Amino acid sequence: MSFVHLLPAPLRYANDERVLATSFFLGILFSLFPYDYPLIWTATSPPEVYFQTLETHLRFLHASPPIVPRILHIVMAVGLLGFFIKLYRPSESNMLFDGASLVLYMCGFVVYMANIVSGLRVVTNGKYDVEITRGEGPAGVKDGAQSEGKPLGRADSLKVLAASNTILALVLVGVLILQAGQWYAERKESQELESTKGEKSVTTKGNGNTHKTNIAKKKA
Questions:
Q1: Cα separation of 58 and 162, whole Å?
Q2: Are 123 and 56 in contact (CB under 8 A)?
Q3: Using CB atoms within 10 A of its CB, is residue 72 exposed (0-12), middle (13-18) or buried (19+)?
Q4: Which ranges in 41-142 belong to alpha helices (H)?
Q5: Which of 101, 125, 146, 182 could, after both became Cys, cross-link 133 (CB 3.0–4.6 A)?
Q6: What CA–CA distances, in Å, run from 26 to 32, 165, 171, 194?
Q7: Residue scoring higher pLDDT (217 or 147)
């Protein structure tokens, strides 16, 4: 029997919540991979038609009905809830694996909010050469006195967005690897416990048989 089945029901569900939420986001990122590949994984510069197709796709995503981002954020919150449930009165295994997984999960959340969401807004506005200023959004007013850093052009902005998708995918894969490592460690621990119990029961039975044999010899 796996150690996971010995956990209380909320903790078993927490395992499922984290893995399902992470896999859900990886599926979304995989669907974006055909659009990102020519931009950051090939040496040749993509043609103009590619940039137009990519911009149309990203604008369509950003203009999705409100139900789409709501579902996305609900799944994100469900995964986060799963981590908090597992870290309630944590064991040593939970602190190591679940703690590291939560750190990676939150890093992915920061990448999503800081790069992906703002990148989609820039693509929708179509103002790539506009610098970001203090107190302004990604489409802030260009002002040399207030500007922070060099503005990104069209190709560079799209590359940053594609690279952010790749970074987010790697972070989520790290979460799954840590969860798989925790499952393996708990499985080995449960096997060792069962093996120890089996050896103790065999030793107890052997001592009992020896005691009965000694009693029978004395009676004889």
A1: 11
A2: no
A3: middle
A4: 48-62, 67-86, 92-93, 99-111, 118-125
A5: 146
A6: 10, 10, 10, 36
A7: 217
